[in-house]
Amino acid sequence: MTSLDNAVETSSEPHVAHNYHPLPVNIARGEGAWVTDVEGKRYLDLLAAYSAVNFGHRHPAIVAALTEQLGRVALTSRAFMSDRLEPFAAALAALAGKDMVLPMNTGAEAVETGIKVARAWGYRVKGIADGRARIVVAAGNFHGRTTTIISFSDDESARAGFGPYTPGFDVVPYGDADAVAAAITDDTAAVLIEPIQGEGGVIIPPEGYLRRIREICDERNVLFIADEIQSGLGRVGETFACDREGVVPDLYLLGKALGGGILAVSAVVGDSDVLRVIRPGEHGSTFGGNPLAAAVGLRVVEMLESGEFQERARALGAHLDAALEPLIGNGVTAVRIAGLWAGVDIDPAKGTGREIAEKLLDRGVLVKDTHGQTIRIAPPLVIRATELDWAVEQLRVVLAS
């Protein structure tokens, strides 16, 4: 038996491909910020499915929209129009201050769509010679795991062994606007970045970075594409992370929270002079923009319009920051926080991020490690301050043990 065979053989999910290494908890139910396993033990969810569950598990308003639409029609394909798609697209475009929405399903599909749109714009509007369009991206990025996306990733666990790789990308250091400017040529169609790198450990770029990227793209006639799949829709205390610097990209890539923690819903949002480069038949999806997804997405947009969740993320994030600060130097080496989203670097003397996550699991707290020593904290925005305090106390106890 090979080591790969053994990994599957010893898994508690022997019929599931071993593409994840989940924590040993088997979740059966969820409500708000809490989940319950098959044995009835409750856990405070501080991951929120990487921001997909921003509004909590089974939020009543989102469940109501889903249930109502299920009683009407769930799927038509885009071969026909549905009465839910235009209201959803109009509301989402207005939320982003844009003209149009190209709906898809998963976050990776949104990124792939953004890449196709950027290349088409480069050829049909900017005048780049066919086959020569390039896109500038940042080191340490995480935009998904399709073959095109991993071609410009430096995460070997996602990349190694899956070549040949797709050409057309120039990788520069994250947070270095001068490097972006230097990488742009006449063949550059777009700059694609995460305003905050989530998978990288909640890496926040220097103040002014996004503004400078916007200026560079304007000066060089290049599209600015912001991957807000994890950072957008309330997570950082603003509707979009770009709002932190008052910046509006040419294209927003959205997903995760757009599905309300219930469905896979994603979208590329931009102005008509960019999105109209895609012609009928050139791009699509059977499920993209389906009536069920559109009904749920519309409800999510309506919930964000009041600003309530953005304000909760700001206030609770400040509360979490104050609670985590005493741990620095006491098992934690650094904390990076934006809204209700924190990257917490664990002192190697206390164990790896995975080991700390497993110990927190035993104490009823769910977090996930990344890049060895970092744990991410991204709870549903409906969590209470007292629940955050309890979770940080569990972390303090684990680090002190």
Radius of gyration from the CA trace?
A: 21 Å
Q: Biggest sheet, in brief?
A: 7 strands, mixed
- Indicate the overall shape: globular
Uncertain ranges: 1-9
Which key phrases capture this entry?
36% helix, 15 strands, 14 helices, 401 residues, disordered N terminus, seven-stranded mixed β-sheet, globular, alpha/beta, four-stranded mixed β-sheet
SSE diagram, text form:
Elements: H1 3-9, E1 27-31, E2 34-37, E3 42-45, H2 48-51, H3 60-70, H4 85-96, E4 100-104, H5 107-126, E5 134-138, H6 147-150, H7 156-159, E6 169-172, H8 177-183, E7 188-193, H9 209-220, E8 223-227, E9 251-254, E10 266-270, H10 272-275, H11 291-305, H12 308-324, E11 332-337, E12 342-346, H13 353-362, E13 365-366, E14 368-370, E15 374-377, H14 385-400
Quick overview:
This protein is an alpha/beta fold. It has helices at residues 3-9, 48-51, 60-70, 85-96, 107-126, 147-150, 156-159, 177-183, 209-220, 272-275, 291-305, 308-324, 353-362, 385-400; strands spanning 27-31, 34-37, 42-45, 100-104, 134-138, 169-172, 188-193, 223-227, 251-254, 266-270, 332-337, 342-346, 365-366, 368-370, 374-377.
